Amino acid sequence: MSEITLTINDKQVKGKEGDTVLEVCQANGIDVPTLCHLEGLSDVGACRVCVVEIEKERRPVPACTYPARNGLVVKTNTKRLEKYRRLILELIFTERNHFCMFCERSGDCELQKLAYRYQIDNVRYPYTFPSLPVDLLHNYIVIDHNRCILCGRCIRVCSEIEANHTLDFGRRGWRTLVSADVEQPLSESSCVSCGACVQACPTGAIFSKVSLYKGRTDECQQITTVCPACGVGCELNVLVKDNNLVSIEAPRLVEPRGPLCRVGRFELLRETRPRVTSPLIRGKQGEHEECTLDKAVQVIVERLKKVKGSFAGLVSARIPSETLSSFQKFIREVVGSDWTDTLDGESYRVISEGIRQFQDESRGLGIECPLEEILEADCIIVVGVDPEINNRIIGTLVRRAASQRKAKLIVIGSSRDIFPLWTDLWLKPRAGREGVLLNGLAKILIDRGLVKQEGISAELTQSLSQDSISGVSQTTGIDKGSLELAAEMYGQAKQGVIIYGDGLVQGNEPSLVASLLKLADLTGNRVGDRLRVISLKPGANSRGAWELGLAVKGIKYNKPKGLYLLLADEPENKELLSWLEGIDFLVVQASYHSPVTAMADVVLPSPIWAERKGKYISMDGRALKLKQVLQPEVPQDQEVLMKISQKLGRDLS
Amino acid sequence: MSFLDLDEALIDLASAIELTATPITDIKEFPLVDVGIIEGAIGNEHDEEVAKKLRDNCRTLMVWGDCACFGGIVSMRNLFSTEEILQRYYSTESTAKDGKIPSSEDLPPLTTVKPINQVVKVDCYVPGCPPSSKVIHYALTELLAGRIPILPSEMMRFD
After folding, report:
1. What is the interface pTM, i.e. ipTM, of the complex?
2. Is B159 within 8 Å of A107 when comparing Cβ atoms?
């Protein structure tokens, strides 16, 4: 882009062609007040606070929408502009309820800050006092229309960042209201509760119920860490006051991995399970009683010696890599067993076997592409997974690609319409026929010459030629037209991404994974030596745990006699309960009391996400750093493991 | 309260200021003064009359607090009708006998709540809910120095 030169406040400054006047000002450190502008969103010139004077323009213009040109002469700080800005703020104040003393956002409000800056100590116009609704029904978000200035930041963040298009303006003129769908309560609307609107709102019009009355931003310490909820690895800006969690914000809301989901933004703050604060052992009547850590360690050591048969270690994939290493060493070297697994280890075994079947010299998960590829895609196949359940940000990225890049979206095998606005094709194969479908698609691609890979092995062509398209159609229950359409969409795409997960992996058929990889390979969907395929991993550090080799063997079918379960602050998991039946000696190290801890012979405390530090590997292989946000209430997991090891005469460090 | 929070600064102020009328002295007629101070919004005809009377009898009129400057918390009343307000005040939430709404021609009728500057001309404003004693002190010393106080941005507070 070519460089342009402008004169701003009598000084020569440089900008890029295509910049707005505001962007040039900001790049050159020239302060222009803004209200409806939010970095990374499109500009609409709604508030007019950023007005500037431009030579030869009859009246002041908003800097945020005025294109910068070579030779433009701009003034940003004249008496006349100050007068207009003051006037605009006064008019905003008269429109609705902007009395700060009973507003949750007082102290954190951009309108208030501007009013201070422009010394608005009175308003010269009569107030209108409209009586507008307040929507309190949503689980996490309150919309108080009385405090809304109609800047539209929530609307733009909802469409441009979250690509959910729930919020928009309703009604006209001075009756305009921000409206969810068509004036639905937010709780009844298509809102996915990502909370981006809460962060974008400059006033107290949209705020979080979860952080209510807990503290203002300037009273809080801000610590950037990584979300423990899933493998996407979103950065969280955690606000803490007096060792209490106040709120969570996205440090880089507008970047590809910027937005947060409702878990990261709200649910982490709304934990209601009672905390395990002290070790518990079984008393004489079999009931749990509190004891010292030393006593609990002694019981573990004694019982460990008596376990007749196999002993296994099962660990949550929320645990950082350093602790996972200690855990692995503990089970292998101290307990003397090779049997370890993660809670989601079964997925790993299917995925990695699938990758191995596809490619002998397996690079393992390294064959998968970075998540950013989703945003660049022009066709996306989502197969056997609902990102809204475990990896909501993936859903956001898919919606963004579909809405902003017009990516074609094919959903395979979901029980619900995951992306109601965006799905181009929804294929529902009969249960267990996913493989036939995938191979059918491969065959159509080959038949139609839509493959980019050179020299397709005769073996592959041979194996596929057995399936006739009508046969595939009959077996899968999907009409021929849809099959052909799906193959065409994917085959013609330049950057087609396949996203798969649970649904495809649960059936324990690695060949399905291999078929998917083959599809991507056939159509040349590669970035460097990686394929545009992404498997969704539920645990924040699943990949870290898997790459450490912790996912050796599951305990679902083969039961060990003894089990050390490092559960940490995992959400409740009903399936896990059934896995634990029939184990003679069960140690559970957990942050919260739950039906799982109730089954344990010994319960040990464990820190929660905000009390841990260490390293995570995101689902696409990036190393992320976890910072300790809160002072821990209980000893770190490693300390407990070390104590047991010492008692057994081994050194874990 | 914020005014009394000036503590020892009051002693210095007292030697420079002659207080002629306050709500405590309950003087109905104001003598002609240099500075008149109003806190609170206009809520009925009586308030309006007092404000006008004070305006006529002072050279500089200063208002204290968000209610006087902007309308403030009491202006929430404007979202409801007078009947609803009285009903709520005297019967729903009150322990007043029989929930009877008092009425007498001596009682001034309620009006829309307004900031002072919508009834009379105001010369200077000290917002805050409440204004801190620091800004009250600043405003008074500015006046004593013969200047009309305008709070600098860093002293501005609406809560």
Report:
1. 0.94
2. yes
